[in-house]
Amino acid sequence: MSLNTLWFIFIAVLYIGFFVLEGFDFGVGILLPFLGRDNDPQKMDAKRRLMLNTIGPHWDGNEVWLLTAGGATFAAFPHWYATFFSGFYLALFLLLLALIARGVAIEFRSKDEAPRWRSFWDGSIFLGSLVSALLLGVAFGNLVRGVPIDAKMQYVGGFFNLLNPYALLAGVATVVVFTLYGAVFISLKTDGEMREKTHALKGKLWIASVLVLAALLVFTYNQTDILARLGADPGVIPIAGMAAMLAAGYFIRKRMEGWSFAMVAIGIAFALVTMFMILYPRVMISSLDPSYSLTITNASSSPYTLRVMTIVTLIFLPLVLVYQAWSYWVFRKRLTTESRMVY
Amino acid sequence: MDVVTLGRLQFGITTVYHFFFVPLTIGLSFLVALMETLYVRSGKEVYLRMTKFWGKLFVINFAVGVVTGIVQEFQFGMNWSEYSRFVGDIFGAPLAIEALLAFFLESTFIGLWLFGWDKLSKGLHAAVMWVVAIGVNVSAFWILIANSFMQEPVGYLLRNGRAEMHDFWALLTNPNMWVMVPHTISAGFATASFFVMGISAYHLLRSQHVDLFKRSFQIAAIVGVSAAVLVALNGHSQAQHIVNSQPMKMAAAEALWQTEEPASFSLLTIGNLSQSGEIFSIRIPRMLCLIAFDQLDCQVLGIYDLQAQYVNEFGPGNYIPPVAVIYWTFRIMVGIGFLLIALALWGVFLVMGDMFETRRRGLRLFVWAIPLPYIANTCGWIMTEMGRFPWVVYGLMKIEDGVSLVVAGGSVLFSTLVYTLVYGLLMAAAIFLWIKFIKAGPEPAPKDQDAEMDMTPSLVGAQD
């Protein structure tokens, strides 16, 4: 396997890590106003704190997967980084704002008791999570669909070019699936009333997810070159991903929370693997002329840089996995509104 | 305004804002880890409350630093895509390594620290904070490797129309980086020390939580005096390096239009900084030679000669950075640097003599000194970055060649305005929270701890 292919895989792994880990963080944020609802303001606040405490120790570390993916793209495929980030300018700008709004809000909301302070930052968490999920979906939808890129590797479409129906559907799908994922995560991490409340919700969200994913799948055959890339039989991974999403419905009904979580996680991961399989060996598809596409060859760094980065990554990425896994282990216990909220 | 100006403005605003939070994170992570270690070692409850109090202020700071750091990572591609294409091969690597080695570490472990009070043993919990502190400092190290490449490109080959990495080791041994890292890190420690001393002084003046804040002040004074001295010493070696590596920056910092032999050092200028507009100036003869080369005789090239030399080397163009900006930011930074040394020594003096009650006016100085390191940090970066004009990568790529080709001025203007607005809002929220928590002070002692405080001042490490 060439280093260029290896780096394509590394970047795919980083994005997948981000979607699989931060996906439920966004989901919890989106669910905050819905599951964190109560007529009694004190109970409402306790519920919201409980929800935020499920992701509290983790969301920041999870977000770094995106930053590392960005940094790794810069290092390994500078043209990909340059074309992608300058081309999707306003979309990424809004994504950054959403990430800022959400991140600060999670840290700030509990630091003052005033109801207006809290509702402002709670709104910021909700909107930040929703917009982040939507825009990530839109961005990745456009990546597989292809965007107008000229012979000089420059994106020549505008902002509204990115808001095509396919990309928007991908955005909606991301929002819906992340919301389901968040609900599954909450039911896995809490106990008592909160855990009970997620059960009915998860069923509905699962149906919505399956429907929107089915629509996305059909649309993908229509809008991307998946047929040419993967064939009518897309292979084991896409099918396993779909099977996992279907199986999630069974486990949700059986209230097997660990399994539900694993199935949704696999569904998300395999959907992204499929996306990267459609993409490969291109990194950005030109809709103007296939020969204008950025590929793992023409967009990449020099072999020397890739070699250096490979060594660094092979040493440190496993280490990251170890300590992040340890942090999930430390906070494995379920929380209830009666738990001591130390933060 | 054109796209280049707007892009520079956006980079300036977002970077200065980001770096408003970074130095405190660098120093305070270490101080909090130290405090928690004192708690673990001594078992004294006061150190636990101390850790929690400063930890709370640290977290507010950290949160804003983290989210504004995301913008930094993406901004190169968004506004400076041609720069990114040109240097990605060598400049992207340190950024990616920073994320992998440091950003992951600090972000994961800060979560463990915040939520882990009941889950981890005392010792482990303190160790977690040390990991955060290490992560923060490793992060600074890699970012400065990247920045140093822009100041003094090394380890590259011009191939395929771009700067490709040729020698990773050269990046790690970039002489510019090795004068910049100690200066920046010690500036972070100084910032945090003055932050802690200032807030401690605020409470000591009101005779609140005396034991806790005396001890905080002691720790910060000792760290602060070392840091302030190191900042100056490292700054000195940095200046000596820049005279050779970026002579134009140094000439601009001195407003030295004509080559001088021996070169004098300008203390102060009133009037226009162009040579004819000078109304009054104080210059110390031979001083620049002493500063730059450790000797009394030297020749320092002036701006005009350097301009002619660059035109010769790189072709026609303006190679003169905004002299007034560089001149004054340099003076403000250095001036504050010396002031901080004096103040830190005064702080140690107060600690040694236990004169917090008697020298109240002297103590009040520390409250007012809190902003000083921030001003100096900002001036330092403005000088460093604007002094590189017209280069985005020194000697290799001019600023206007690095800008994105497909991004419209309107988009950059819009995003700049929104960033400014949002960042302003965040700053207001952070300052609101800081003031609130500072005024509220630490949790009250469980029993009458403040009453049983030691009558003799205990220095760090000397207790028990």
Helix and strand composition category of chain A: mainly alpha
What is the gyration radius of chain A calculated from CA atoms? 20 Å
User: Total number of β-strand segments of chain A?
Assistant: 2
Mean pLDDT of chain B: 92
Average pLDDT over all residues of chain A: 95
Please explain how this structure is put together.
The complex is a heterodimer of chains A (343) and B (464). Chain A has 343 residues and is an all-alpha fold. In chain A, 75% of the residues lie in helices and 1% in strands. Chain A is built from 12 helices and 2 strands. Chain A has helices at 3-35, 41-55, 59-76, 78-87, 89-108, 115-145, 165-189, 193-223, 226-230, 236-253, 257-279, 303-330; strands at residues 282-284, 294-295. In chain A, strands 1-2 form a two-stranded antiparallel sheet. Chain A starts with a helix and ends in a 13-residue tail after the last helix. The model of chain A has no long low-confidence stretch (mean pLDDT 95). Chain B has 464 residues and is mainly alpha-helical. Chain B has 14 helices and 6 strands. Chain B has helices spanning 3-42, 45-79, 81-115, 122-151, 168-172, 175-205, 210-245, 247-253, 287-293, 303-314, 323-353, 360-369, 371-386, 409-440, and strands spanning 156-159, 162-165, 265-271, 278-284, 391-393, 397-398. In chain B, the strands form 3 sheets. Chain B has a two-stranded antiparallel sheet. In chain B, strands 3-4 form a two-stranded antiparallel sheet. In chain B, α7 (210-245) runs antiparallel to α11 (323-353). The radius of gyration of chain B is 24 Å and the shape is globular. Chain B starts with a helix and ends in a 24-residue tail after the last helix. At the A-B interface, α3, α4, α5 and α12 of A face α2, α3, β2 and α14 of B.
Task: Show the helix and strand layout.
The complex is a heterodimer of chains A (343) and B (464).
Chain A: H1 3-35, H2 41-55, H3 59-76, H4 78-87, H5 89-108, H6 115-145, H7 165-189, H8 193-223, H9 226-230, H10 236-253, H11 257-279, E1 282-284, E2 294-295, H12 303-330
Antiparallel strand pairs in A: 1-2
Chain B: H1 3-42, H2 45-79, H3 81-115, H4 122-151, E1 156-159, E2 162-165, H5 168-172, H6 175-205, H7 210-245, H8 247-253, E3 265-271, E4 278-284, H9 287-293, H10 303-314, H11 323-353, H12 360-369, H13 371-386, E5 391-393, E6 397-398, H14 409-440
Antiparallel strand pairs in B: 1-2, 3-4, 5-6
Helix pairs in contact in B: 1-2, 1-4, 1-6, 1-13, 1-14, 2-3, 2-7, 2-14, 3-4, 4-6, 6-7, 6-12, 6-13, 7-8, 7-11, 11-12, 11-13
